[in-house]
Design goal:
There is one protein chain. The chain has helices at about 20-30, 50-60, 85-90, 100-105, 125-130, 165-175, 190-205, 235-245, 265-270, 310-315, 335-340, 370-385, 395-400, 405-410; strands at about 1-5, 15, 40, 65, 70-75, 80-85, 105-110, 135-140, 145, 155, 180-185, 205-210, 215-220, 230, 250-255, 275-280, 285, 295, 320-325, 345-350, 355, 365-370, 390, 415-420. The protein has about 425 residues and is an alpha/beta fold. The protein has two domains: about 1-20 and about 235-420, UDP-n-acetylglucosamine1-carboxyvinyl-transferase, Chain (Alpha-beta prism); about 20-230, UDP-n-acetylglucosamine1-carboxyvinyl-transferase, Chain, CATH 3.65.10.10. A four-stranded mixed β-sheet has the order 22-23-1-24, covered by helices on one side. It has a four-stranded mixed β-sheet with strand order 2-15-17-16. Strands 4-5-3-14 form a four-stranded mixed β-sheet, with helices on one face. Helix 1 (about 20-30) packs parallel to helix 7 (about 190-205), helix 8 runs parallel beside helix 12 (about 370-385) and helix 10 (about 310-315) packs parallel to helix 12. The longest helix has 13 residues, at about 235-245. Residues about 115-120 have low confidence and may be disordered.
Protein backbone atom coordinates (compact mmCIF):
# COMPACT_ATOMS: atom_id res chain seq x y z
CA UNK A 1 0.00 0.00 0.00
CA UNK A 2 1.22 3.51 -0.87
CA UNK A 3 1.10 6.83 0.91
CA UNK A 4 1.54 10.32 -0.48
CA UNK A 5 4.11 12.62 1.11
CA UNK A 6 3.60 16.37 0.79
CA UNK A 7 5.99 19.10 1.90
CA UNK A 8 4.06 22.33 2.23
CA UNK A 9 4.90 25.91 1.45
CA UNK A 10 5.22 25.77 -2.33
CA UNK A 11 3.21 28.19 -4.48
CA UNK A 12 1.64 26.37 -7.41
CA UNK A 13 1.87 27.89 -10.88
CA UNK A 14 1.69 26.66 -14.46
CA UNK A 15 -0.60 24.59 -16.65
CA UNK A 16 -2.54 21.43 -15.82
CA UNK A 17 -4.62 19.30 -18.17
CA UNK A 18 -7.89 18.01 -16.73
CA UNK A 19 -8.65 14.34 -17.37
CA UNK A 20 -11.90 12.79 -18.53
CA UNK A 21 -14.67 12.52 -15.96
CA UNK A 22 -14.66 9.28 -13.97
CA UNK A 23 -18.34 9.65 -13.12
CA UNK A 24 -19.15 9.93 -16.79
CA UNK A 25 -16.80 7.25 -18.08
CA UNK A 26 -17.99 4.46 -15.77
CA UNK A 27 -21.69 4.43 -16.78
CA UNK A 28 -20.76 4.96 -20.43
CA UNK A 29 -18.53 1.88 -20.32
CA UNK A 30 -21.44 0.00 -18.75
CA UNK A 31 -23.73 1.29 -21.51
CA UNK A 32 -21.60 -0.39 -24.19
CA UNK A 33 -23.19 -3.65 -22.97
CA UNK A 34 -26.47 -2.56 -24.57
CA UNK A 35 -25.13 -3.39 -28.04
CA UNK A 36 -23.28 -6.31 -29.59
CA UNK A 37 -21.26 -3.91 -31.73
CA UNK A 38 -17.93 -2.24 -31.11
CA UNK A 39 -17.85 1.09 -29.27
CA UNK A 40 -14.85 3.39 -28.95
CA UNK A 41 -14.64 5.63 -25.88
CA UNK A 42 -12.03 8.39 -25.84
CA UNK A 43 -10.60 10.69 -23.14
CA UNK A 44 -10.92 7.97 -20.50
CA UNK A 45 -8.94 8.67 -17.32
CA UNK A 46 -6.31 6.19 -16.14
CA UNK A 47 -7.85 5.40 -12.76
CA UNK A 48 -8.32 2.44 -10.47
CA UNK A 49 -12.12 2.55 -10.88
CA UNK A 50 -11.83 2.49 -14.67
CA UNK A 51 -9.50 -0.52 -14.46
CA UNK A 52 -12.04 -2.25 -12.22
CA UNK A 53 -14.86 -1.61 -14.70
CA UNK A 54 -12.71 -3.04 -17.49
CA UNK A 55 -12.14 -6.17 -15.40
CA UNK A 56 -15.88 -6.49 -14.80
CA UNK A 57 -16.61 -6.21 -18.53
CA UNK A 58 -13.99 -8.83 -19.35
CA UNK A 59 -15.39 -11.07 -16.63
CA UNK A 60 -18.76 -10.88 -18.39
CA UNK A 61 -17.14 -12.22 -21.56
CA UNK A 62 -16.71 -8.87 -23.30
CA UNK A 63 -13.62 -8.00 -25.31
CA UNK A 64 -11.95 -4.79 -24.12
CA UNK A 65 -8.81 -3.09 -25.41
CA UNK A 66 -7.15 -0.04 -23.88
CA UNK A 67 -4.76 2.20 -25.78
CA UNK A 68 -3.83 5.19 -23.65
CA UNK A 69 -6.99 7.17 -22.99
CA UNK A 70 -8.99 5.25 -25.61
CA UNK A 71 -11.00 2.16 -24.63
CA UNK A 72 -12.54 -0.08 -27.29
CA UNK A 73 -15.34 -2.39 -26.17
CA UNK A 74 -16.64 -5.27 -28.31
CA UNK A 75 -19.45 -7.02 -26.40
CA UNK A 76 -20.34 -9.48 -29.16
CA UNK A 77 -22.96 -11.99 -28.14
CA UNK A 78 -21.92 -12.18 -24.48
CA UNK A 79 -24.01 -14.47 -22.28
CA UNK A 80 -22.99 -13.75 -18.69
CA UNK A 81 -25.05 -11.41 -16.51
CA UNK A 82 -23.35 -11.61 -13.09
CA UNK A 83 -21.14 -8.83 -11.71
CA UNK A 84 -19.23 -10.51 -8.92
CA UNK A 85 -18.67 -9.28 -5.37
CA UNK A 86 -14.86 -9.44 -5.68
CA UNK A 87 -14.92 -6.60 -8.23
CA UNK A 88 -18.15 -4.73 -7.52
CA UNK A 89 -17.37 -4.36 -3.81
CA UNK A 90 -14.54 -1.91 -4.54
CA UNK A 91 -16.62 0.86 -6.15
CA UNK A 92 -20.15 2.14 -5.87
CA UNK A 93 -20.54 3.07 -9.55
CA UNK A 94 -20.60 -0.62 -10.47
CA UNK A 95 -24.32 -0.64 -9.63
CA UNK A 96 -24.82 1.07 -13.01
CA UNK A 97 -24.33 -2.36 -14.60
CA UNK A 98 -27.80 -3.34 -13.39
CA UNK A 99 -29.68 -1.35 -16.04
CA UNK A 100 -27.78 -2.40 -19.19
CA UNK A 101 -27.52 -6.07 -18.14
CA UNK A 102 -31.24 -6.22 -17.41
CA UNK A 103 -32.11 -4.49 -20.69
CA UNK A 104 -29.84 -6.63 -22.90
CA UNK A 105 -29.91 -10.00 -21.15
CA UNK A 106 -33.28 -9.62 -19.40
CA UNK A 107 -31.42 -10.88 -16.32
CA UNK A 108 -28.90 -9.36 -13.97
CA UNK A 109 -27.06 -10.35 -10.82
CA UNK A 110 -25.08 -7.49 -9.34
CA UNK A 111 -23.42 -7.55 -5.96
CA UNK A 112 -24.24 -4.72 -3.59
CA UNK A 113 -21.70 -1.99 -4.42
CA UNK A 114 -18.81 -0.69 -2.33
CA UNK A 115 -16.73 2.49 -2.58
CA UNK A 116 -16.15 5.36 -0.19
CA UNK A 117 -17.27 5.42 3.44
CA UNK A 118 -19.25 8.69 3.48
CA UNK A 119 -22.44 7.56 5.17
CA UNK A 120 -25.46 5.60 3.93
CA UNK A 121 -26.03 5.73 0.18
CA UNK A 122 -28.97 3.37 -0.42
CA UNK A 123 -29.74 1.96 -3.84
CA UNK A 124 -33.50 1.97 -3.31
CA UNK A 125 -34.04 4.38 -6.22
CA UNK A 126 -32.24 2.00 -8.57
CA UNK A 127 -34.50 -0.85 -7.49
CA UNK A 128 -37.60 1.35 -7.65
CA UNK A 129 -36.74 2.29 -11.23
CA UNK A 130 -36.20 -1.30 -12.37
CA UNK A 131 -39.49 -2.39 -10.75
CA UNK A 132 -41.31 0.40 -12.58
CA UNK A 133 -40.04 -1.09 -15.86
CA UNK A 134 -41.44 -4.51 -14.96
CA UNK A 135 -38.44 -6.23 -13.39
CA UNK A 136 -38.80 -8.79 -10.61
CA UNK A 137 -36.22 -8.16 -7.93
CA UNK A 138 -34.90 -9.94 -4.89
CA UNK A 139 -31.81 -9.84 -2.73
CA UNK A 140 -29.91 -13.06 -2.03
CA UNK A 141 -26.35 -13.71 -0.83
CA UNK A 142 -25.58 -9.99 -1.03
CA UNK A 143 -26.62 -9.82 -4.69
CA UNK A 144 -29.40 -7.88 -6.40
CA UNK A 145 -31.06 -10.49 -8.61
CA UNK A 146 -33.25 -9.02 -11.34
CA UNK A 147 -35.39 -10.74 -13.95
CA UNK A 148 -37.42 -9.06 -16.69
CA UNK A 149 -38.76 -11.21 -19.51
CA UNK A 150 -40.92 -8.30 -20.69
CA UNK A 151 -39.27 -4.98 -19.92
CA UNK A 152 -41.85 -2.24 -20.42
CA UNK A 153 -41.70 1.52 -20.23
CA UNK A 154 -43.23 3.23 -17.23
CA UNK A 155 -43.31 6.37 -15.11
CA UNK A 156 -40.52 6.62 -12.56
CA UNK A 157 -40.16 9.24 -9.83
CA UNK A 158 -36.57 9.40 -8.59
CA UNK A 159 -36.88 11.80 -5.69
CA UNK A 160 -34.77 10.71 -2.72
CA UNK A 161 -34.23 12.04 0.79
CA UNK A 162 -31.40 14.25 -0.41
CA UNK A 163 -32.46 15.01 -3.98
CA UNK A 164 -32.19 13.20 -7.28
CA UNK A 165 -29.69 10.40 -7.90
CA UNK A 166 -27.17 10.58 -10.73
CA UNK A 167 -26.47 6.85 -10.84
CA UNK A 168 -30.13 5.86 -10.50
CA UNK A 169 -31.09 8.26 -13.32
CA UNK A 170 -28.42 6.73 -15.55
CA UNK A 171 -29.41 3.18 -14.63
CA UNK A 172 -33.10 3.69 -15.41
CA UNK A 173 -32.28 5.60 -18.59
CA UNK A 174 -30.07 2.74 -19.85
CA UNK A 175 -32.63 0.06 -19.01
CA UNK A 176 -35.41 2.06 -20.67
CA UNK A 177 -33.59 2.31 -24.03
CA UNK A 178 -34.48 -1.32 -24.86
CA UNK A 179 -37.80 -1.48 -22.99
CA UNK A 180 -41.07 -1.68 -24.92
CA UNK A 181 -42.88 1.66 -24.91
CA UNK A 182 -42.10 5.02 -23.33
CA UNK A 183 -40.45 5.71 -20.00
CA UNK A 184 -40.77 9.04 -18.21
CA UNK A 185 -38.21 9.75 -15.46
CA UNK A 186 -39.44 12.51 -13.13
CA UNK A 187 -37.08 14.36 -10.78
CA UNK A 188 -34.19 13.03 -12.84
CA UNK A 189 -30.67 14.22 -12.12
CA UNK A 190 -29.38 16.70 -14.69
CA UNK A 191 -25.65 16.67 -13.90
CA UNK A 192 -23.25 16.98 -16.87
CA UNK A 193 -22.39 13.30 -16.43
CA UNK A 194 -26.04 12.31 -16.97
CA UNK A 195 -26.18 14.46 -20.10
CA UNK A 196 -22.95 12.89 -21.36
CA UNK A 197 -24.38 9.39 -20.89
CA UNK A 198 -27.58 10.38 -22.70
CA UNK A 199 -25.55 11.78 -25.60
CA UNK A 200 -23.67 8.49 -25.92
CA UNK A 201 -26.90 6.47 -25.80
CA UNK A 202 -28.40 8.70 -28.51
CA UNK A 203 -25.32 8.02 -30.67
CA UNK A 204 -26.08 4.31 -30.15
CA UNK A 205 -29.58 4.83 -31.54
CA UNK A 206 -31.54 5.48 -28.35
CA UNK A 207 -34.47 7.91 -28.40
CA UNK A 208 -34.02 10.24 -25.43
CA UNK A 209 -35.22 13.78 -24.80
CA UNK A 210 -35.16 16.17 -21.85
CA UNK A 211 -31.79 14.94 -20.60
CA UNK A 212 -30.71 18.43 -19.51
CA UNK A 213 -33.82 18.75 -17.34
CA UNK A 214 -35.48 16.99 -14.41
CA UNK A 215 -37.89 15.17 -16.77
CA UNK A 216 -36.30 12.66 -19.12
CA UNK A 217 -38.36 10.80 -21.72
CA UNK A 218 -37.05 7.57 -23.25
CA UNK A 219 -38.79 5.82 -26.14
CA UNK A 220 -37.66 2.22 -26.23
CA UNK A 221 -36.12 0.76 -29.39
CA UNK A 222 -35.55 -2.84 -30.43
CA UNK A 223 -31.81 -2.61 -30.90
CA UNK A 224 -28.83 -0.33 -30.29
CA UNK A 225 -25.57 -0.17 -32.23
CA UNK A 226 -22.01 0.70 -31.31
CA UNK A 227 -20.79 4.31 -31.23
CA UNK A 228 -17.75 6.52 -30.74
CA UNK A 229 -17.68 9.10 -27.97
CA UNK A 230 -15.31 11.38 -26.08
CA UNK A 231 -15.77 11.73 -22.30
CA UNK A 232 -16.35 15.22 -20.89
CA UNK A 233 -13.68 16.79 -18.65
CA UNK A 234 -13.82 15.96 -14.94
CA UNK A 235 -15.41 18.98 -13.23
CA UNK A 236 -14.46 17.71 -9.76
CA UNK A 237 -10.80 17.35 -10.67
CA UNK A 238 -10.95 20.82 -12.22
CA UNK A 239 -12.51 22.26 -9.06
CA UNK A 240 -9.81 20.62 -6.96
CA UNK A 241 -7.01 22.28 -8.95
CA UNK A 242 -8.76 25.66 -8.84
CA UNK A 243 -8.89 25.33 -5.05
CA UNK A 244 -5.20 24.32 -5.14
CA UNK A 245 -4.45 27.65 -6.81
CA UNK A 246 -6.40 29.46 -4.09
CA UNK A 247 -4.92 27.63 -1.10
CA UNK A 248 -1.30 28.03 -2.26
CA UNK A 249 -1.79 31.66 -3.43
CA UNK A 250 -0.91 30.39 -6.88
CA UNK A 251 -1.63 30.92 -10.56
CA UNK A 252 -2.87 27.85 -12.45
CA UNK A 253 -4.26 27.57 -15.98
CA UNK A 254 -6.52 24.56 -16.49
CA UNK A 255 -6.70 23.02 -19.96
CA UNK A 256 -9.53 20.77 -21.18
CA UNK A 257 -12.04 22.22 -18.70
CA UNK A 258 -15.72 23.13 -19.07
CA UNK A 259 -16.18 26.26 -16.97
CA UNK A 260 -19.97 26.07 -17.38
CA UNK A 261 -19.99 22.81 -15.38
CA UNK A 262 -18.63 24.56 -12.26
CA UNK A 263 -20.58 27.81 -12.04
CA UNK A 264 -21.64 27.34 -8.40
CA UNK A 265 -18.03 26.68 -7.36
CA UNK A 266 -16.31 29.40 -9.37
CA UNK A 267 -18.96 31.93 -8.33
CA UNK A 268 -18.20 31.25 -4.65
CA UNK A 269 -14.43 31.31 -5.14
CA UNK A 270 -14.61 34.60 -7.02
CA UNK A 271 -16.82 35.98 -4.24
CA UNK A 272 -13.99 35.02 -1.87
CA UNK A 273 -11.52 36.99 -3.99
CA UNK A 274 -9.94 34.44 -6.36
CA UNK A 275 -9.60 35.60 -9.96
CA UNK A 276 -11.00 33.08 -12.47
CA UNK A 277 -10.98 33.94 -16.18
CA UNK A 278 -11.24 32.22 -19.54
CA UNK A 279 -8.10 32.64 -21.63
CA UNK A 280 -6.87 31.39 -24.99
CA UNK A 281 -4.99 28.61 -23.14
CA UNK A 282 -7.88 27.52 -20.91
CA UNK A 283 -9.26 28.70 -17.57
CA UNK A 284 -6.91 30.71 -15.37
CA UNK A 285 -7.30 30.67 -11.57
CA UNK A 286 -5.10 33.29 -9.88
CA UNK A 287 -4.69 34.47 -6.31
CA UNK A 288 -4.72 38.27 -6.42
CA UNK A 289 -5.78 39.34 -2.92
CA UNK A 290 -6.53 38.05 0.55
CA UNK A 291 -9.47 35.67 0.42
CA UNK A 292 -12.65 36.15 2.44
CA UNK A 293 -14.44 33.39 4.40
CA UNK A 294 -17.60 31.99 2.81
CA UNK A 295 -20.69 29.97 3.70
CA UNK A 296 -21.69 27.19 1.31
CA UNK A 297 -24.47 24.61 1.10
CA UNK A 298 -23.99 21.46 -0.99
CA UNK A 299 -26.92 20.77 -3.31
CA UNK A 300 -27.70 18.70 -6.42
CA UNK A 301 -26.47 20.17 -9.70
CA UNK A 302 -26.27 23.04 -10.54
CA UNK A 303 -25.69 23.70 -6.83
CA UNK A 304 -22.35 23.42 -5.02
CA UNK A 305 -21.23 19.79 -5.46
CA UNK A 306 -20.80 17.58 -2.42
CA UNK A 307 -17.69 16.14 -4.11
CA UNK A 308 -15.90 19.48 -3.59
CA UNK A 309 -17.09 20.10 -0.03
CA UNK A 310 -14.00 18.59 1.65
CA UNK A 311 -11.55 20.43 -0.64
CA UNK A 312 -13.36 23.72 -0.03
CA UNK A 313 -13.17 23.09 3.70
CA UNK A 314 -9.39 22.76 3.48
CA UNK A 315 -9.26 26.19 1.84
CA UNK A 316 -11.44 27.75 4.53
CA UNK A 317 -9.20 26.38 7.32
CA UNK A 318 -6.54 28.89 6.24
CA UNK A 319 -8.89 31.71 5.23
CA UNK A 320 -9.13 34.37 7.94
CA UNK A 321 -12.60 34.52 9.50
CA UNK A 322 -15.44 32.06 10.12
CA UNK A 323 -17.09 29.96 7.42
CA UNK A 324 -20.08 27.64 7.66
CA UNK A 325 -20.24 24.57 5.40
CA UNK A 326 -23.60 22.80 5.26
CA UNK A 327 -23.77 19.28 3.80
CA UNK A 328 -27.21 18.56 2.33
CA UNK A 329 -26.36 15.56 0.13
CA UNK A 330 -24.48 13.22 2.47
CA UNK A 331 -24.94 14.55 6.04
CA UNK A 332 -22.27 12.19 7.38
CA UNK A 333 -19.61 13.30 4.88
CA UNK A 334 -17.46 14.98 7.48
CA UNK A 335 -14.96 12.26 8.43
CA UNK A 336 -12.12 14.45 7.14
CA UNK A 337 -12.75 17.00 9.89
CA UNK A 338 -10.89 14.97 12.50
CA UNK A 339 -7.91 14.53 10.17
CA UNK A 340 -7.77 18.24 9.36
CA UNK A 341 -7.89 18.78 13.14
CA UNK A 342 -4.66 16.78 13.42
CA UNK A 343 -3.10 19.45 11.22
CA UNK A 344 -4.30 22.24 13.50
CA UNK A 345 -7.58 23.17 11.81
CA UNK A 346 -10.28 24.66 14.03
CA UNK A 347 -13.56 23.04 12.93
CA UNK A 348 -16.68 22.46 15.02
CA UNK A 349 -19.40 20.12 13.79
CA UNK A 350 -23.02 20.93 14.58
CA UNK A 351 -25.35 18.50 12.80
CA UNK A 352 -25.05 19.04 9.04
CA UNK A 353 -23.04 22.24 9.62
CA UNK A 354 -19.27 22.55 9.95
CA UNK A 355 -18.14 25.83 11.46
CA UNK A 356 -14.62 26.58 10.27
CA UNK A 357 -12.45 29.20 11.96
CA UNK A 358 -9.60 30.16 9.68
CA UNK A 359 -6.06 29.74 11.03
CA UNK A 360 -2.86 31.51 10.02
CA UNK A 361 -1.29 28.18 9.15
CA UNK A 362 -1.63 24.41 9.37
CA UNK A 363 0.99 21.96 10.58
CA UNK A 364 2.08 18.90 8.64
CA UNK A 365 1.04 15.60 10.21
CA UNK A 366 0.35 11.96 9.39
CA UNK A 367 -3.29 11.74 8.29
CA UNK A 368 -5.63 8.99 7.13
CA UNK A 369 -7.86 9.31 4.05
CA UNK A 370 -11.40 8.04 4.60
CA UNK A 371 -12.72 8.49 1.07
CA UNK A 372 -11.84 9.79 -2.37
CA UNK A 373 -12.60 13.49 -1.92
CA UNK A 374 -11.32 13.58 1.66
CA UNK A 375 -8.00 12.32 0.24
CA UNK A 376 -7.81 15.32 -2.08
CA UNK A 377 -8.72 17.66 0.77
CA UNK A 378 -5.86 16.34 2.90
CA UNK A 379 -3.42 16.72 0.01
CA UNK A 380 -4.55 20.33 -0.45
CA UNK A 381 -4.09 20.97 3.26
CA UNK A 382 -0.63 19.40 3.05
CA UNK A 383 0.33 21.78 0.23
CA UNK A 384 -0.07 24.77 2.52
CA UNK A 385 0.90 23.20 5.87
CA UNK A 386 4.25 23.80 7.53
CA UNK A 387 6.44 20.73 7.31
CA UNK A 388 5.66 17.25 6.06
CA UNK A 389 2.25 15.63 5.68
CA UNK A 390 1.90 11.89 5.09
CA UNK A 391 -1.46 11.00 3.55
CA UNK A 392 -2.19 7.32 4.18
CA UNK A 393 -4.65 5.05 2.33
CA UNK A 394 -4.29 6.89 -0.96
CA UNK A 395 -5.86 3.99 -2.84
CA UNK A 396 -8.95 6.18 -2.47
CA UNK A 397 -7.13 8.97 -4.30
CA UNK A 398 -6.13 6.64 -7.12
CA UNK A 399 -9.80 5.91 -7.75
CA UNK A 400 -10.53 9.47 -8.86
CA UNK A 401 -7.41 11.54 -9.65
CA UNK A 402 -5.21 10.64 -12.58
CA UNK A 403 -1.46 11.10 -11.97
CA UNK A 404 -2.09 13.58 -9.17
CA UNK A 405 1.49 13.62 -7.88
CA UNK A 406 2.89 14.18 -11.39
CA UNK A 407 0.44 16.99 -12.09
CA UNK A 408 1.13 18.68 -8.76
CA UNK A 409 4.89 18.30 -9.18
CA UNK A 410 4.69 19.96 -12.60
CA UNK A 411 2.91 22.88 -10.92
CA UNK A 412 5.75 23.25 -8.41
CA UNK A 413 4.57 21.16 -5.48
CA UNK A 414 6.94 18.94 -3.52
CA UNK A 415 5.02 15.68 -3.39
CA UNK A 416 5.93 12.04 -3.89
CA UNK A 417 4.67 8.51 -3.32
CA UNK A 418 6.17 6.07 -0.82
CA UNK A 419 5.44 2.50 0.15
CA UNK A 420 3.86 2.04 3.55
CA UNK A 421 6.15 0.37 6.07
Amino acid sequence: MDKLVVEGGKRLAGNVTISGAKNSCLPILAATLLSEDRSVIRNCPDLRDISTMIKILKNLGVRVQQDGSTITVEPGNYKKYTASYELVSTMRASVCLLGPLLAKQRKAEVSFPGGCVIGPRPIDLHLKGMKALGADLKVERGYIIADAKNLKGGNVYLGGHFGSSVLATGNVMMAATLAKGTTVIENAACEPEVIDLACFLIKMGARISGHATHRIVVEGVKKLHGAEHSIIPDRIEAGTYIIAAAITKGDITLKNMELDHLVAVTDKLMESGLEIKKTISGVRARYVKKLKPLDIITLPYPGFPTDLQAQFMSLMTVTDGISVITEKIYPERFIHISELGRMGADIQLEGPNAIVKGMKSLSGAPVMASDLRASAALVLAGLVAKGRTDVHRIYHLDRGYENIEAKLTKLGAKVWREKEK
